Structure formats: C-alpha cells, structure tokens
Amino acid sequence: MTVRVRFAPSPTGPLHIGGARSALFNWLFARHYGGTFIVRVEDTDLERSNRVSEENILESLRWLGLDWDEGVETGGSFGPYRQTERLEIYKKYAQELLESGKAYHCYCSEDELALEREELSAKGELPRYMGRCRQLSVQELAAFEAEGRKPVVRFLVPEEQTIIINDLVREEVSFECSGIGDYIIVKSDGVPTYNFAVVIDDFLMEISHVIRAEEHLSNTPRQILIYQAFGWNLPEFAHVSLILGKDRSKMSKRHGATSIEQYMNLGYLPEAMVNFLVLLGWSPGGEDEVMTLQQICEQFSLERVVKSPAVFDLDKLNWLNACYIRQCPVPRLTDLALPYLHEAGMVKMPVSSEYRIWLEELVLLLRDYLDNMSQIVDQSRMFFDSTVVPVDLEAKEIMGQIDVPAVLKKMEEKIDTATLLNQETVKKILKEVGKELDLGGKKVFMPLRVAITGQVHGPDLHKVIPVLGAEKTINRLKDAFIRVSN
Ligand code: GLU
Questions:
Q1: What is the whole-number distance in angstroms between the Cα of residue 8 and the centre of ligand 1?
Q2: pLDDT at 182 over 90
Q3: Ligand 1 in contact with 42 (CB < 6 A)?
Q4: Which among 234, 279, 403, 465 is most buried, taking Cβ atoms within 10 Å?
Q5: Which of 169, 421, 376, 366 is nearest to 267 (CA)?
Q6: Is the pLDDT at 486 greater than 80, yes or no?
C-alpha cells in the first residue's frame, strides 16, 4: 500500500488541539506505513486566512516534532502546496465541469437565495439551492450579464443518488443526494470553495487516505460527487471523532487552553502533548499509556481509533506532563525553566556557569512538584525571596508551639558551624537538633520547614537547605526567631 496523507489546515487562527490531533494521526499513519506526510495550506477563504496563522501552525507542528515530507516550505513534486497558488489549476477543472454540463453558472443574488431558503423552511423542507439557474435561456443569461451580476459556479447534484461512504473509522455512512442541493464550487471572485479545491488537490497530490475530523463527514458526499464527475478513484476516508470537554459539550475555551501555542507557552513538553493528543481517540494495545512518539508510531493503526467522542481531560494532560518532566534530563529542563525565571525577574540573563550549576540543582529539586514548567516560578520563589513568612494559618499555628524558639536557635547554631552543607550533613544536623532537645521528628521538622520555606508542604528540608545555602537559611531562622520571640 502506498500511503500519501495530508494535513490541510486553513490558516485562520492558531493550531488547535483538534487540528493538531488530525496532523498527528496523519503523521503517525504515514510514518507507520513508510508513507509520505504532506502539509497543504488551504487558504481560499481570503478574508480569514493570513500568513501569521500559517506560520503559527507550522511552528506548532515543528514543536510537536511532526516533520513533513512535502508541503509548504519543504516543497515537493506535487506543489504548489498553498491553495491560493493553485488557482489556475482549479479554474481548468471547473471549466471542464462547465463544459461537460456537470456544473453551471448561477447568477442568483444573496437576497434571492435567502428568500428561497425561507420559503423552503416555511414548507418544512431542507433549505437548499433548488437549481433555478440550471437551465438559463440565452436571453436570461444576457440579461443577468447586462445587469452586471457576477456568476458563481454550482455543481449539479444528481437528484436520485445515495452516496455510501465506507469510512475506516465510522464504517458505512450514507447520504441522500436529494438533501444536498447544487452547491457552489467557484465563488464569484473566481476562488474555489473548500469542497472543490480539496478534491482537486487530494486527487492531484495522489492522497491515498483522507484522515480528518468528524465535522467534515457531512462534506464528504459533496466531495465524492466531484470525484465521480471526473471519473476519479476515491481515496479512503477516516473521520476521527469529535473532542469534547469533560462536561461532554464540544471542546472550547471554557475547558482550558485550546491552541498548541498556549500549551507550549505554559511549559508543557512536546512529547507529553503528543502522547496526550494520540490518546484523544486512539488507544494502545497494552496497558501503559505513557509512550514515546517512536513507540506510538510502531503501534499506530486506524483500527484502534475509536468511534465514540474523545474527552479532553486537563488533569490527564497534567499528569502526563508531570511524568515527562520527571524523566527529562536536568540540563534540558533547566533550559526550559530559564525563560520563565527570567520573565519573572528572578534570574538575569546570561547566567554564569557557576550560577547555572546552582539552577540545575534547583530544577532537580523542584521537578517532582511541577505539572508544567511555568509553575517553576511559584515553586522556586522561596529560593529567591530575601525573606519568607508563614503562608497560611496552619503554618502560623506551627510557629506558635512552645519549643519553636529553641529549635530555631539550635538549628541556627548548627548550620552556622557546619563546614559542609549537603543532603547527608543536613540530615545529620536535623537528627542532632531533635536529639539534643529531646523532641520528636515533627516538632523539629515542621517549624524549621515553615521558618525556612514559609510552607507546611514541599520538598524535604535536607534537600532544600543545601540549595538555599547557609546564609539564607541562617537569615530565615533568625527572622523566624525574632517573630516568635515577640
Ligand atoms: N482546511 C480544512 C480544515 O482546516 C481541511 C479539511 C480536510 O482535511 O479536508 O478544516
């Protein structure tokens, strides 16, 4: 089987979760079968399309690691790959349909069409174009031209035909042509509509499988009619289910960030994003859902793409991202953390190599507490702030206990005289403090934790103190002592 698949975004906004999932499924299908993955830009909606969106989409694809073999920027022997650069091609094919009587010019105005739709609705019929311009006489045609009307080209839909789609995901789906109505294939400005251009391109680019979102299923009969009009073989179709929010309504901004760029900016890792996206409609054979792109690619098939809607679960994405953050090498994680710390004014760029070593220690310490890299700012604030105070009531109450001043003093002395501060030595110091004051673990750890970090929860103290350093630790112990002694 020669596999040639495409991702065909309309550049009218950033790359959304749904679009990214379509791109990913096509990419995986191509890579699994050693086929070709093409990126074609469908920019025939001149008002809404723009190059900024196109660049954003391509950038997001690159960030996800989805490289394309042919398409915009890359080129290839089936180009051009931007529809506005293919207008002459569509014109030629539209002309062919006009000449064979399978399409015709329609001069109806917007008002006339609106009236027709109203009349049909009033009769309880499907609003559609009823073919008023199908058989225009020479005189009628001349009259319209004389009025200066600019015609569109409509495809003549056969009345009595059932279109059956053997969809690779949805199985058999059928549509009655009688409900379709002659649709526009070329607008009055000469620009083709999506349903026409997509067929010409998929045919000329020898696309073997059209894998796209379910919302295009209702376009498919319109496209099949055009294949049939030219006598072309159909590609295989696979319509991937909708993505719903957790409340089962269609995924929208209410359910969280919708574009890939937003997730990138929040500090999600591309490998987590890809892993998450593939699970929106596809399931692996085994139990383990945490998989590398390579592993997914080996297993990927359309047979395991499910018919039922996929549910976008942000908690799951956070969980997956946390898994990937924990596995990520610290130098890379530090590179990812730096822009956030810089932005927050905590780190000045460029950083010296000595400071970089310290930052890596900090990242290593905190990575278990992050769902995404932008959280490093809040998580690491206590290491940058000059003073900390108890953050909540629980923390304040801990500092009110009777033994606290003694614990703080003892700890301060020990840190002050320690020659080396690492996890081992700090562990030892903590034990000694408890022993010398005859206090159990919690009575030592909790006030020290609150004094040093302001918080009740967080990384182990013996890990925090070496990263914070002796000076800051001592200052905080002193501050806390003053507060509790007043
Ligand atoms: N340009 C269409 C879209 O962005 C592509 C649909 C298709 O894959 O045929 O939705």
A1: 5
A2: yes
A3: yes
A4: 465
A5: 376
A6: no
* Ligand 1 and 341: CB distance under 6 A: no
User: To test ligand 1's pocket by mutation, which of 6, 7, 10 has the most ligand atoms within 8 angstroms of CB?
Assistant: 10
Tell me the pTM. Answer: 0.92
Tell me, using a 6 A CB cutoff, whether residue 223 lines ligand 1.
no
- Cβ-based neighbours of 151, under 8 Å, separated by 6 or more: 105, 106, 107, 133, 144, 188
Task: For 7-45, write each residue's pLDDT tens digit.
Answer: 999 999 999 999 999 999 999 999 999 999 999 999 999
Atom 5 (ligand 1) nearest CA: 8
Cα dihedral 379/380/386/387 (nearest 10): 30
Domain 385-486 has CATH 2.40.40.20: no
Q: Indicate the top mutation candidate among 22, 58, 198 to test ligand 1's pocket, ranked by most ligand atoms within 8 A of CB.
A: 198
CATH placement of domain 87-240: 3.40.50.620
pLDDT tens-digit readout, 64-81: 999 999 999 999 999 999
CA of residue 201 relative to chain centroid, distance: 26
* Whether pLDDT at 256 is above 80: no
Q: Identify whether 253 is a catalytic site residue.
A: yes
Q: Are 199 and 226 in contact (CB under 8 A)?
A: yes
> Is 198 a pocket residue for ligand 1 (Cβ < 6 Å)?
yes
CATH 3.40.50.620 residue ranges of the chain are 87-240
9 lines ligand 1 (CB under 6 A): yes
Count of other CB atoms within 10 angstroms of residue 59: 15
User: Which CATH code for domain 328-384?
Assistant: 1.10.8
Quote the pLDDT of residue 328: 97
